[in-house]
Each structure stands twice: as structure tokens, then as C-alpha cells.
């Protein structure tokens, strides 16, 4: 998942959640990753648990993230080995490891709010990665949003949730030239109401195609559109695939553990963008067409402001502490 804490008006606890900025990074042009010239020394200085002390799963998660995202940055995907390493840790982790359970108050519906507020347990954040848990009451929704340049690991800790996700269609489908179906009627910037009318037309008859030149509309392909019930596997999304834009709808109280690498950061251009999604039949864009049998798995995404009724509430994490 991965809503940036700033956009969600979530207060962060500073101090132990920030690592010192590394001033010794140089670019390795051959690998497109950063090489940390002082990292070796840093690694050996890491404090280790005392002999005989049991390491908590939360500590193991932190230690693994620290290794996996050592050379992280926007658009930098960890190696396949690193991804499997973190996936294995997440697959084995449980809600109880964080002292989180469905009977906590922030998993209950609010009788005073029209939409359900989403709780966020901030566990850790540095400039390389963040760890947190989204707490959704029944019918809570995290609207469609993106994760620019990030690799995101999500683990449903408990509950049942509907997930719909998309990736951008970067290249024009190969049959676009073979099946030119665009008519030449122009429309102005369409409003949502107009789109709904057009959709009813689509359901009754052959879609009435309109040529839309609208910068805010971009074609995306559905990656996931299913219900998930914990326990289930860790899901992973990448900068350009795996369902980088997603929407979560809680069917029951849900807890979702989110690991972002790197985290959202407005000052570095990684801000959270929200979208509306419209059926493929609602628009046509000149020169872009999708085969009939694939149209149900495509949609147009349009940027929107953060929904006014969307509220994230920072909750106090009381689980096992992380030793940095
Ligand atoms: Fe997300």
C-alpha cells in the first residue's frame, strides 16, 4: 500500500526514526545503483543483540529491510535475492508480532463519520525505507493511489480486503493500427456525470467513441481485482509493474503491513497521487486502441485531488521496539 505519511496528515515521531544522511554516496553508472563508500564500516558497527537474547520478528524485519534497501533510491529495485529474502521474512510475520489485534479501537467503525478513518501505526522510517501498518475498519477504503519509483511489500495481517490494482500501459498495443475504431467527434474536458451517461450508453449498445485529448487521462491495465483473506502471501509491486496503482477496500476489519522502499518524500518528488478510474469504453485517445477481448481489463486513470473525506489517523505503536 503506502500512503505517504505527510499527505495522510500523520505525525511522525522524530529522532530514532531517522538515520544519518549518508554523504559518501557515489553513482555506479554500470549498475545504476548507489555505492556507499562508507557502508562496510557502518555495518560492522551495528549493535548486535546480546548473546542469548531472542530477536523479535519486528527486529528481524527491520534488519532485513536495512540490508535489502541499503542501496535503495527512487526507481532502484532490490536484487531478486534480496526481494526473496524480505518476502520470506514477511510471509512468516503475524499481527501478534506487532501486538496488533482486530479488537483494538481503531479497527471499529465510527458512528459519527460518513467515511471510515484509516489508522496508521508508524513503526519505522528512514530515507531508504519505511515500515507501517494500515488499520482499516470494515468498509474503510484507501482510494486508488500510486507509488512513484518504489518497490512496495504488502502483507495482509488479518481480515478480508478487496484489492484492485493497475499498471500503466506504456506501449501502444500492437493491434492499434489494425483496428482503428476512433471516430472524429471531439468532446470538451468531460465531467464525471457525462462519463456516467456514456457508460449507460455503452451498456445498451455499441460504445459511442469520442476522441479525447485530455492530458490527465492515461490508459492502465488491471493487474489485480480480487478479494484477499489473511493469511495470504506477501504481495510486491514495482515502479512499473506488479500493480503500482492500487485501491484497498476493507470487507472486514483489516490490518496491512506495508514496507516501502524508498518512502514517499515530497521534497524528492515522490508524492502520493490519487486517481479516478473509468472504464475503457468511456474514452478513446487518438491512435490508441485495445483489442475487444482485453477492454474489460483496461481503464483510464485520471489524476484527482486527495479526497476531502479521506482521513488517516496516526496511532501509537506499542509493539516490540526496534534496535537500530
Ligand atoms: Fe499503497
From TrEMBL:
Basic residues composition-biased segments: 40-49
SUPFAM superfamilies xrefs: RmlC-like cupins
Catalytic activity: L-cysteine + O2 = 3-sulfino-L-alanine + H(+)
Residue ranges, compositional bias (Polar residues): 22-39
InterPro entries in alphabetical order: PCO/ADO, RmlC-like_jellyroll, RmlC_Cupin_sf
Keywords of this entry: Iron, Metal-binding, Oxidoreductase
GO molecular-function terms, A-Z: cysteine dioxygenase activity; metal ion binding
One Pfam family in the UniProt entry: PCO_ADO
One GO BP annotation of this record: detection of hypoxia
Cofactor requirement: Fe(2+)
EC number: 1.13.11.20
Entry keyword NADP: no
Superkingdom of origin: Eukaryota
Class of the enzyme per the UniProt entry, highest EC level: oxidoreductase
Disordered: region residues: 1-49
Family listed: Belongs to the cysteine dioxygenase family.
Name the UniProt record assigns to this protein: cysteine dioxygenase
Native source organism of the sequence: Erythroxylum novogranatense
